[in-house]
Amino acid sequence: MLAFSVAAVAQSSDMELDVRMDSGFSQKNLSEMFSAVIEQNNLSQFFQISAENRTRGILRNNSVILEIQSEVFGTILTAEQSSSGTFSLNPGGQITFSNLNITDISNLEIQGEPEFDLLITSNGRKLIQNLRRGYLISDDLFTLNVKIVRNLMNEEEILTQESISFQTSLDESELFIETDREIVDELRGLNVSTDAPEFSWIGEQNRPYRLLIIDTDRAQNVDALFSERFAREHSEGDIRNEQTGVVLDVMASQPSYQIPDRFAGLFEPGKTYAWQVQTTKQTVQETVVQAYTDRLQFTTSFPIEGEIRELLVNIFGEQRTNEFVENGLLLDQIEIDGVTYSKEEVLRVLREMAGKIEKNQLKVVS
User: Fold this and answer.
1) Residue whose C-alpha is closest to residue 347's, from 361, 333, 335, 360
2) Domain limits at 323?
3) Residues 214, 215, 217, 218: what is their CA dihedral angle, to the nearest 10 degrees?
4) Dihedral angle sign, alpha carbons of residues 211, 212, 216, 221
5) Which SS3 state, helix, strand or coil, does residue 247 take?
6) What is the mean pLDDT of the chain?
7) Are 22 and 42 in contact (CB under 8 A)?
8) Do 19 and 155 fall into the same domain?
9) Of 117, 145, 169, which closes a domain?
């Protein structure tokens, strides 16, 4: 929720002016607020202007001037009430505008329906256009200045004025890309002999994303390598670097990437890989910010084939080994007598177990 600050310029004792933002207004409503002012509609209320005659006399020929300013962009727009709709307030008379449309009147005279002449500055057009493009709202201070003026003999006299301000800030959640948890789970224990990994995340279509996959066993400093690669511009001629541990550095135009057949052999069994996705977003101020997923890891498993299958047959027999295969067992680590052996030690342990069985030094009970 935004915090609002009200600044009242010494008001005339003749008229009391109150300017307030709607209680549910947030910076996400900024584009809609500008549209409501420009189109002069009251489909949703974003701000309210109320004026009351506190004198015993009639205050004649009054009109409203609204100016919206930004600390960054300067004056965004000015809406000045034309001769149509000027109002005279009898003693105690009140008039209330929702946005720029009258919603409540009492004890007054009004000449027609209020209309406003709009002047939008070039910076204002840029801001409004960028908001409509969906660019991120960033740090700024917006102010609505309201004046009530009296028109006498083609001259304007300011009866009273008041302003209300609110600050906007970059939403930090916009800098985080959520990953597809189902895909993350599927990557764990990946059988690289039969599966080509697919990476997926939550995002917009037709937005450029950069996927970086690193071999954590080969990279000297995984975090530093991620930072160094993302800091440089992507190059199609440098999407792999086996020496440093860069498995793949590719661009995607949608929030997913299926490893193509030509890269099917990039992932090895029994290794741990880290991956992260990055994209670039623009703010309404036309600055660039980076958004990222978490850095995630997955470990590929040893499929039951080749030497591993032979060793398991020697240890457990053909029938149990076939059951392992049918149940989709993937070896990543082995625990014996409470001791866990890592993926790098799986083959060695199996070889030792098979050798002991051949020498009748080990009996497997299942």
Assistant:
1) 333
2) 306-358
3) -90
4) negative
5) strand
6) 85
7) no
8) yes
9) 169
pLDDT in tens, 290-330: 999 999 998 887 666 666 667 767 777 777 766 665 555 55
Is residue 250 within 8 A of residue 210, CB to CB? The reply is yes
Mean pLDDT of 157-179: 93
Count, in order, helices (H) and strands (E) of the chain: 7, 19
User: By CB neighbour count within 10 A (0-12 exposed, 13-18 middle, 19+ buried), where does 354 fall?
Assistant: middle
CA angle 202, 1, 49 (to 5 degrees): 125
Closest CA to 62 of 162, 147, 145, 164: 147
Instruction: Label residue 331 by pLDDT band (50, 70, 90).
Output: low
What is the rounded CA–CA span in Å between residue 83 and residue 97? 17
DSSP-assigned beta bridge partners for residue 123:
none
CB-based burial, 190-220: b 16+ in 10 Å, e otherwise = bbbbeeebebbbebeeeeebbbbbbbeebbe
136 in Cβ contact with 171 (< 8 Å): yes
Domain boundary among 169, 188, 220: 169
